[in-house]
Amino acid sequence: MRQLTMFSHLIWGTALLCACSGTPKTMSRAELVKFIGNKEHGLSQEQEVNGIKVQVSYRPSALLAAQELGNGQLPPPAVIDSIESKYKKNYYFLLKYSKDGREAIRQLGDFSRYSDMVQVLSFQMPRFVNVTTAAKDTVPLRDYLFDQTYGMSDGNTVLLCFEKAQLQNKKDIEINVAECGFGTGNLKFHFEEKDIKKVPALDYRKL
């Protein structure tokens, strides 16, 4: 009986240790960005072809809401809810192109190619990016935004937006990034819905 009691205590102690060391339910903005960037969580992936590094990272809608709120005084819950509601209906992913730690479009050789790629990233991405699911459904981009940083960043980024209703309960999400001018060929980035659902909520008091 004593051995059974000691075993029970060991089980409860292990469970308590796991609970204490588990992922918190809420995080600050900095903590959430770090969580997303940890490749062990399956939310940030990258491939490199011909010296061009292509990265796709999940972007929780709460981070977009926080960006809109800025770093000022915490607004009332109703304001936060109103801003969040604009983003909650979509999934967001950040597509990033870089070369040697700098913006990829500034490493292509001449101004003509640079100008062409600015046009592609700004206005033509629906031609090159979509999502396919395990059920072979194809989901197009709902919207996107190229962040023109004029050489001041370590990469060129495009925020990709997909309608969440079209991807609910699909389990596997494959983002297809076709060759668009960087010489990388066609790339695929695989995400799982279960990993996305594990993302902690944003603590708006810690922006």
Q: In words, what does this structure look like?
A:
The structure is a single chain. The chain has one domain (27-206): Domain of unknown function DUF4426 (Immunoglobulin-like), CATH 2.60.40.3340. Helix 3 crosses helix 4. The radius of gyration is 21 Å and the shape is globular. It has helices at residues 2-21, 29-37, 61-69, 77-87, 111-123, 193-197, and strands at 26-27, 44-49, 52-59, 90-99, 102-103, 129-133, 138-140, 143-147, 156-163, 172-177, 187-192, 201-202. 32% of the residues lie in helices and 30% in strands. A hairpin with an 8-residue loop joins strand 8 (143-147) and strand 9. It has 207 residues and is α+β, with helices and mostly antiparallel strands. The strands form 3 sheets. Strands 2, 3, 4, 5, 8 and 9 form a 6-stranded antiparallel beta sheet that branches. A 4-stranded antiparallel beta sheet has the order 7-6-10-11. Strands 1-12 form a two-stranded parallel sheet. It starts with a helix and ends in a 5-residue tail after the last strand. It has 6 helices and 12 strands.
